[in-house]
Amino acid sequence: MSETQSQLVADVEKLAHTQVNDCYQCGKCTAGCPRGDVMDIGPTRLIRLVQTGEVLEAARAESVWQCVSCLTCSTRCPKSVNISGVIDALRQISVEKRISAKRFNKTVLFQKEFLRNIRRNGRTNELELVVAWKLLGLASDLNPLAALRDAQLGPKMFFRHKLHFMPGSPVKDKAVVRRIFDRCMAERKSETEE
Amino acid sequence: MGTTEFGYYPGCALHGSSNDYEQSVRACLDRLDVRLTELEDWICCGATAAHSINQKLATALPARNLAIAEKAGCGSLLAPCPMCSMELLKAKQAITSDPAVRDEMSEIVELPVIGSTDVVNLIQVFQAIGLDAIKSKVTDSLDRFRPACYYGCLLTRPPKTLRFDDCEHPSSMETFLAELGAEPVDWNFKTECCGAGMTLCDPDTVTDLAHKIIANARKHGANVIVTACPMCQMNLDMRQADVEKKFEETFDMPILYLSDLVGLALGISEEELGINRHYVKLQI
């Protein structure tokens, strides 16, 4: 394993607070995974890739974004490997290095836009989030049909008073939220700046 | 029974697209003389997005809320959304188990935080009130309901952080509802995932998972699914029309919050609980 590879493995273990070499590849995580049947690289094999230093290959996997964060894998692991934590670490690395699976581009866009939304408002403004995400999606794939998917939910939610043009009680101290974001993101940015 | 007090962290969902859950919780707890004090200027817990993109932020956002709760002298904080309560408890665990994390978080969130506040889910609030106290206020039997109690992921997972019920075979909701006259069914998908926060960005995953859950509940004789999670409720209720279309099956399975059923037993109307704002009509 090269030095770069060892550093990446150490980074994953630090972010996930776990030791990947504890895994003995029993496969229980993949067996219980609700998305295991559709994943390109299931949780057991993702852990194996990390064990062998192939963190970047693991971070490029579609499965990293197919994961629904249900925590079944980590809960059932007989060796207490924090598998869902490793997947989170791989997501973070895939975003920072801009290598996340193309097919799940919109899932990545959604998570990024969600964070931008909280950074701005302190709490999620759902309508603003959905509109921004749909526009970003349209700009990325120029597919108006995809952008219109779920449009029928808008009126359904509106008439049930579940969608609001103005969010209820806004956060007063929004500046502190931005400072929290900047402090948390700063350290990682300097590590990964190209 | 005297008044019981809890701090209250609604989280974004209960002030947005799941505001029927807040309506239901408030109506129900009000009838049980529980006073909720909302945290001053709370912020989002970060949800899936934070732990997908920056691990430190995923601790800091809930840590800020824990710090606000501590400053307000809040001993016990109700977070009815299991994702919020799990994120809050995960941050609390990180802060209490490592002084370095505690100090770093206090600095990042600009308030001292030691992790002294208890974070509880809705079931734990009902348990704290006590079955006898609740039964003394019951006016209507729930005997027409055969609920499939659906815990989803984050009411019991990760078990070492949450320390609540059995993570593979939870039964706290069944115990409660059976005492109120309902006949909970035994079924297989109590702790399976509904797709949670993927409802918009990956609706196909959500409809596949929701189909398995609703079909299994029906197969085991349930006439209602009961949940204590805004995302579970939304995925099974709002997405049920998509599930029916995709799998060419009709379910008409009402999806109620736990506080809806308890509220009905306490004689609160469907309108007061917000059940009339659900997508699938309750016709039992």
Query: Helices and strands of chain B, in N-to-C order?
Result: EHHEHHEHHEHHEHHHEHHEHH
Task: Supply the helix-strand structural class of chain B.
Answer: alpha/beta
Distance between the termini of chain B: 32 Å
Order of helices and strands of chain A: HHHHHHHHHHHH
So what's the overall shape of chain B? Answer: globular
Tally of individual domains of chain B: 2
Rg calc of chain A: 19 Å
Query: Mean pLDDT of chain B, nearest integer?
Result: 96
Uncertain regions spanning at least 5 consecutive residues of chain A: none
Classification by helices and strands of chain A: mainly alpha
Helix content of chain B: 40-55%
Top-tier CATH class of the largest domain in chain B? Alpha Beta
Tell me the span between the first and last alpha carbons of chain A.
Answer: 23 Å
Going by CATH, the architecture of the largest domain in chain B would be 3-Layer(aba) Sandwich
Strand content of chain B: 5-15%
* Largest sheet report of chain A: none
Q: What is Rg of chain B?
A: 19 Å
- At the third CATH level, what is the topology name of the largest domain in chain B? Rossmann fold
Show unreliable segments of chain B.
Answer: none
Tell me the name of the CATH class of the largest domain in chain A: Mainly Alpha
Q: Helix tally of chain B?
A: 15
